[in-house]
Design goal:
Helix content: 10-25%
Number of strands: 10
Number of domains: 1
Shape: globular
Radius of gyration: 23 Å
Structural class: alpha+beta
Largest sheet: 5 strands, mixed, barrel
Order of helices and strands: HEEEEHEEHEHEEE
Length: about 220
């Protein structure tokens, strides 16, 4: 009787190390797919201007600082809402605002939500600033500066925090909340911008986001 080899061949099925590698690859693929920038056709997709209104003096928190946890206090300055396109997203871990505002969004509206315009720009974020560069400006500089901004987002709830961490570059998002000043535990402070046409240090909005969600389309 001819002898034979019994059992499955070595390598026919992955061992536990192989399964871990496969799981890591699948997770990395999922994270890449979930976070990759969205492609958009040319055209303005967030046409409206952000809306800023005076606070209702009788509203909770309007008269004084709000406790934001981690010994941070927020002073509301104005109600704020906007529908904007996300131009860039940056996560922060160790700076003074990181415990309460872990994510910054660079955003655009009006002409700065148009893919045909944005194709001319290189956009990046670091050190809580938003940077843009274009070899040739597709818009007057003042129009670029008044239709884009860098926002420090303070999530007002766990649901907003989760939505913020999932947001993708290219998405159109709707945000509502308050512009706030921040006083930190070490005596440091940060003041929100109350204008859409300023630039440089102090020009970023600090937003206590009560709602934050993608807009379909």
């Amino acid at each position: 009787m001819r002898g034979g080899r019994h059992g499955r061949e070595s390598g026919a099925f992955p061992g536990w190390k192989g399964l871990l590698v496969i799981a890591a690859v699948l997770l990395a693929g999922y994270q890449w797919a979930a976070s990759r920038p969205l492609d958009r056709r040319p055209g303005v997709i967030a046409p409206g201007e952000p809306v800023q209104t005076a606070l209702d003096a009788s509203a909770p928190g309007a008269a004084g600082p709000l406790d934001a946890g981690h010994d941070y206090h927020l002073t509301p300055r104005a109600r704020f809402s906007a529908t904007v396109r996300v131009l860039a997203r940056e996560r922060y871990y160790i700076d003074a605002l990181a415990p309460i505002a872990p994510v910054d969004l660079a955003v655009g509206w009006g002409p700065m939500s148009d893919s045909a315009v944005l194709a001319a720009f290189d956009i990046s974020q670091s050190n809580r600033f938003y940077y843009w560069h274009a070899d040739e400006l597709p818009l007057p500089r003042g129009e670029i500066e008044s239709h884009s901004a860098n926002w420090h987002i303070v999530p007002a709830s766990a649901a907003v925090d989760r939505a913020l961490r999932r947001v993708r570059v290219g998405e159109v998002v709707r945000l509502e909340g308050e512009l706030v000043d921040v006083d930190g535990p070490d005596g440091g402070s940060a003041r929100t911008s109350l204008r859409r046409d300023d630039t440089g240090a102090g020009a970023c909005e600090i937003i206590l986001a009560e709602s934050f969600s993608p807009v379909g389309g």
